[in-house]
Write a structure and sequence with these properties.
Length: about 190
């Protein structure tokens, strides 16, 4: 059974080059795909959505695509750069759109497994971003995986070298998200 995975995150960086956050997200998603997931990505420029307006029912095409993907998802991976001790506005705005899922049969992120990754330049920022992501996922009724990944100032080559520990954590997160989602989906009532 394939797991439907939505990967959200990154930042808007130099054209043609993925951000460090997007690179981490893609590394973890690759491990999830190797474990049997099908991944759909919403990264960088794809997250440049209009500011979420709860009073409006009009949604940009990009926001509609994101919401439809999340509706179908069994699991999510969310990665955010740390901006001033929290998640980036780009990622937070995308997550705010999940309010539109409140009336669904599986409201918000209910019955979905979510892996969270915080990325930054120092030791405190990425840990704070990870905590914020986990709090947001809880508020949206999602289930954050036990493993959360923090990528700080250590030199990191996400292909596995020189920071093999970070790469191993990202791989473990992808495998964990897929395994938990598969178990959750198998136990879910068929009323879906």
């Amino acid at each position: 059974m394939s797991v439907r995975l939505v990967a959200i995150g990154g930042s808007i960086g130099p054209a043609g080059r993925p951000s460090r956050t997007e690179t981490a997200l893609r590394r973890s998603a690759a491990a999830a795909v190797a474990a049997g997931a099908e991944a759909e990505f919403f990264v960088g420029e794809q997250l440049r959505l209009p500011l979420y307006d709860p009073s409006s029912r009009v949604r940009d095409v990009r926001a509609q695509r994101l919401l439809e993907a999340v509706r179908r998802a069994d699991a999510l991976l969310i990665a955010s750069p740390a901006y001033h001790g929290a998640v980036s506005g780009l990622v937070k705005n995308a997550l705010d759109y999940f309010e539109d899922l409140r009336e669904d049969s599986r409201p918000y992120l209910e019955q979905r497994v979510v892996g969270c990754i915080g990325v930054g330049s120092g030791p405190q920022g990425p840990a704070a971003a990870l905590r914020s992501l986990r709090d947001i996922v809880h508020a949206l009724r999602g289930w954050p995986t036990p493993l959360g990944v923090v990528i700080g100032a250590a030199p990191t080559d996400l292909s596995g070298s020189p920071d093999d520990r970070t790469a191993a954590q990202l791989d473990a997160m992808g495998i964990e998200v897929t395994g938990f989602a598969r178990a959750w989906t198998a136990a879910r009532p068929l009323s879906r």
